[in-house]
Amino acid sequence: MDDLKKISDLRTPANWYPNARTITRKIIFHAGPTNSGKTYHAMQRFLTAKSGVYCGPLKLLATEVFYKANEKGTPCDLITGEERKFGISEDKPASHVACTVEMTSVNTPYEVAVIDEIQLLKDPQRGWAWTRAFLGLIADEVHVCGEAGSLELLQKICETTNETVELFNYNRLTNLTIEDSALVSLDNVLPGDCIVCFSKNDIYNVSREIEARGKEVAVIYGGLPPGTKLAQAAKFNDPDNSCKIMVATDAIGMGLNLSIRRIIFYSIIKPTMNEKGEKEVDTISVSNALQIAGRAGRYKTQWENGL
Q1: How far is it, in rounded angstroms, from Cα 249 to Cα 263?
Q2: Exposure letters 275-307 (e unless 16+ CB within 10 A, then b)
Q3: How far is residue 128's CA from residue 120's CA, in Å, rounded to a whole number?
Q4: Measured between alpha carbons, how far is 30 from 205 in angstroms, rounded to an integer?
Q5: Which residue in 62, 77, 152, 264 has the fewest CB atoms around it within 10 Å?
Q6: Contact (CB, 8 A) for 249 and 276
Q7: Which residues lie below 8 Å from residue 243, measured CB to CB, with a gap of 6+?
């Protein structure tokens, strides 16, 4: 009966991960807005560690880390809900892993773990995955990256694990300016513009209208395979390519490196799902709007002054 009571007690989630509780973890919070270099600094530690795991919000980001790590000479495997790729071979798993946060292993020890977009702890649909990763990762160092507003929640969670948070604050590396007027017409779209839509129908309609004006368009949305997204991003980023316009969903708001001059919101109404699993439409949050808008003016790109 005592054992049954113990496994039925859901009041202390930290205790669901005894392997993580048996080690002394160092929690480092890299806090800052978009384009501040916070994830870059965490990833430098990941690349130089003896072993590591990157936990990202998107297949696209995990795939990007997989390719970059292997290019830099750090063998890295890729694990998402749809595929697995190997940095060395199927018979010899690499000591580094890039994965979507839902696929994070809480049974494998690492020297360094990086959890990206930690503010998604509060997300009604996916927050469980960030909570599980943060509480359960068996890593000497856990680097979390995200908005500074997540600090208080992280500190409260760490009170339940007897851990402390070491904070590094970062400032935005480039300027971001709000324009005084709306775009009004797609005739006014310029090179380096990214039009953000929240439905596939809008993406299709907007991209078709821009192409009808004789301009080539790169398209990124959640349903595309990671390889296709990366190819579209590479085409848009290439200064020598004729494609200078992008139409995308808010998937671009999470860390993908894009050379965007200006972010234009086609709409600020987004289909969502409430806690009961029911579909709704709602205005995007200020935090989400800033996250997306912050993709403009990327550091060390041709458009460093974002709009």
Answers
A1: 11
A2: eeeeeeeeebeeeebebbbbbbbbeebebbebb
A3: 9
A4: 39
A5: 152
A6: no
A7: 216, 217, 218, 235, 236
Separation of alpha carbons 4 and 253, rounded Å: 44
Residue 250 CA to residue 28 CA, distance in Å, equals 27
What are the structure tokens assigned to 151, written together? 């600090």
Contact assessment for residue 76 and residue 96, using Cβ atoms and an 8 Å cutoff:
yes
Instruction: Tell me if 11-169 shares its fold with 186-294.
Output: yes
110 in Cβ contact with 137 (< 8 Å): yes
Q: How many Cβ atoms sit within 10 Å of the Cβ of residue 247? A: 28
Q: Which CATH number fits domain 186-294: 3.40.1280.10, 3.60.150.10, 3.40.50.300, 3.30.1330.60?
A: 3.40.50.300
Superfamily of domain 11-169: P-loop containing nucleotide triphosphate hydrolases (3.40.50.300)
- pLDDT tens for residues 225-263? 878 888 999 999 998 999 999 999 887 877 677 889 999
Distance, CA of 258 to CA of 58 (rounded, Å): 15
Measured CA to CA, the distance from residue 209 to residue 203 in angstroms comes to 10
Amino acid sitting at position 90: E
Rounded (10°) angle between helices 38-48 and 59-71: 50
| 190 vs 269: CA distance, rounded Å | 24
Asked whether 254 and 115 are in contact (CB, 8 A), the reply is: no
Tell if the pTM clears 0.90, that is, is over it.
Answer: no
- Under 8 Å between Cβ of 260 and 295: yes
71-107: per-residue pLDDT in tens?
999 999 999 988 899 999 989 999 999 999 999 999 9
Q: What is the dihedral of CA 58, 105, 44, 152, to 10 degrees?
A: 80
